[in-house]
């Protein structure tokens, strides 16, 4: 066996990470001059890997030949040949490491940068600091965008709940989550409510002079001679329009049904809903009485004949239901798309009893699609009549105000005689068009 005895003086290796205070210099790896006396060309040679050699490091080969730094890494800029160099400011912790054995005072050579100086920045205005949200811009601002109005996938698509597999049971908290979701949707509908406006100044437009004379001539017609024809094709006689033109007269069923048909025709024409499933409908004055007295079976076919029966009812926007009870006319407005019911009474009734009757019809019409918790009675207000005879006028005017998006309280009892003449004139005109268009040339909507 070969035994080698080494002493501390004969064998000495540096510990990893620790070096002597005065390491020896290898003449083949680094110049022997101090840093402040090293020529510039020799400093450039240090970039090729030259540095301070660790103790005990020797070389047995000739020094490598000098290789000048590559200049093709940083080419000189020429017009139309090289793009400008992108200047990037990196932190000290992101810079690449230098040579492993370099002098402590050595600075890396500066990288040649040929990018043009940045242009002077303009001062930032205060409004430019705000977030520019495309959805909050004006509609004309979208025309400046290259692709027009932006679309949101959240608004375009509604996720559908996947059915639970047959071999799984619903979680314990599912009923509680569903109850809270229904309560949240109900609160949103109540807070949103119908948006209606109140006109500035007088809310009732005057009747044209030529129509005043035509209405007066209709009142002088002989008995049995039709003076007008409703949109449903029913003849109206002098005795019918007299219930509307005479002061303190009670409006009869023919006037109520004919004028509600005029309002529904205007809504369908204005919204382009002339074909297909109607989005607006008005039952006649006998619907509520039959529903109240006979239940759902008494009116089971009424919605089907109007093409809104069954689940189609949930796609309907507005349904007007005139209510005649105890010699008093009131109005129920059902909005199936919003699951809401409104009640307008010129004597201040709240309509809770009428709401229960309407829910009976909804329950029978929708079947399993009816969820009583989804439907709510909205608090609604109407102008008050100052006598016991104008309730029919208030019913029809409230229906017209709701159809036009106006507050039903925008007219008062002082407009009653003017409204009576307008109701007859608009029935004789077969609609809210021409001189009776509720929207004038200035875009103002009035009754």
From TrEMBL:
<protein>
    <recommendedName>
        <fullName>Ubiquitin-like protease family profile domain-containing protein</fullName>
    </recommendedName>
</protein>
<feature type="region of interest" description="Disordered">
    <location>
        <begin position="18"/>
        <end position="39"/>
    </location>
</feature>
<keyword id="KW-0645">Protease</keyword>
<dbReference type="GO" id="GO:0006508">
    <property type="term" value="P:proteolysis"/>
</dbReference>
<comment type="similarity">
    <text>Belongs to the peptidase C48 family.</text>
</comment>
<dbReference type="Pfam" id="PF02902">
    <property type="entry name" value="Peptidase_C48"/>
</dbReference>
<dbReference type="GO" id="GO:0016926">
    <property type="term" value="P:protein desumoylation"/>
</dbReference>
<keyword id="KW-0788">Thiol protease</keyword>
<dbReference type="GO" id="GO:0005634">
    <property type="term" value="C:nucleus"/>
</dbReference>
<keyword id="KW-0378">Hydrolase</keyword>
<feature type="domain" description="Ubiquitin-like protease family profile">
    <location>
        <begin position="234"/>
        <end position="402"/>
    </location>
</feature>
<dbReference type="GO" id="GO:0016929">
    <property type="term" value="F:deSUMOylase activity"/>
</dbReference>
<dbReference type="InterPro" id="IPR038765">
    <property type="entry name" value="Papain-like_cys_pep_sf"/>
</dbReference>
<dbReference type="InterPro" id="IPR003653">
    <property type="entry name" value="Peptidase_C48_C"/>
</dbReference>
């Amino acid at each position: 066996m070969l035994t080698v005895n080494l002493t501390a003086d004969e064998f000495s290796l540096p510990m990893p990470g620790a070096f002597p205070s005065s390491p020896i210099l290898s003449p083949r790896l680094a110049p022997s001059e101090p840093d402040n006396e090293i020529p510039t060309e020799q400093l450039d040679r240090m970039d090729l890997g030259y540095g301070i050699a660790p103790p005990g490091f020797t070389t047995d080969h000739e020094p490598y030949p000098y290789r000048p730094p590559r200049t093709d890494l940083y080419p000189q800029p020429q017009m139309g040949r090289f793009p400008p160099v992108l200047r990037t400011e990196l932190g000290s912790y992101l810079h690449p490491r230098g040579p492993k054995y370099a002098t402590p005072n050595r600075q890396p050579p500066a990288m040649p940068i040929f990018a043009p100086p940045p242009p002077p920045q303009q001062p930032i205005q205060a409004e430019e600091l705000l977030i520019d949200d495309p959805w909050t811009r004006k509609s004309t601002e979208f025309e400046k965008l290259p692709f027009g109005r932006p679309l949101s996938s959240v608004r375009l698509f509604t996720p559908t709940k996947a059915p639970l597999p047959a071999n799984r049971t619903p979680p314990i908290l599912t009923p509680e989550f569903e109850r809270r979701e229904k309560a949240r949707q109900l609160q949103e509908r109540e807070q949103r409510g119908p948006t209606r406006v109140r006109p500035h100044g007088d809310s009732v437009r005057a009747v044209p002079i030529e129509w005043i004379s035509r209405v007066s001539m209709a009142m002088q017609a002989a008995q049995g001679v039709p003076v007008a024809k409703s949109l449903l094709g029913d003849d109206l006689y002098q005795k019918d329009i007299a219930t509307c033109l005479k002061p303190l007269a009670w409006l009869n069923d023919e006037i109520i049904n004919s004028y509600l048909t005029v309002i529904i025709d205007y809504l369908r024409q204005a919204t382009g809903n002339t074909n297909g499933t109607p989005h607006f409908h008005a039952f006649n004055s006998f619907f509520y009485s039959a529903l109240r007295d006979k239940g759902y079976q008494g009116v089971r076919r009424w919605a089907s004949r109007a093409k809104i029966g069954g689940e189609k009812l949930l796609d309907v926007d507005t349904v007007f239901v005139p209510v005649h009870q105890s010699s008093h006319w009131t109005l129920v407005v059902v909005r199936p798309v919003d699951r809401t019911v409104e009640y307008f009474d010129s004597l201040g009734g709240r309509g809770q009893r009428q709401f229960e009757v309407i829910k009976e019809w909804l329950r029978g019409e929708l079947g399993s699609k009816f969820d009583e918790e989804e439907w709510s009675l909205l608090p609604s207000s109407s102008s008050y009549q100052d006598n016991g005879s104008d309730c029919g006028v208030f019913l029809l005017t409230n229906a017209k105000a709701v159809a036009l998006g106006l507050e039903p309280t925008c007219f008062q009892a002082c407009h009653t005689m003017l409204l009576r003449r307008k109701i007859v004139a608009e029935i004789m005109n077969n609609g809210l068009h021409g001189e009776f268009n509720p929207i004038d040339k200035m875009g103002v909507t009035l009754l």
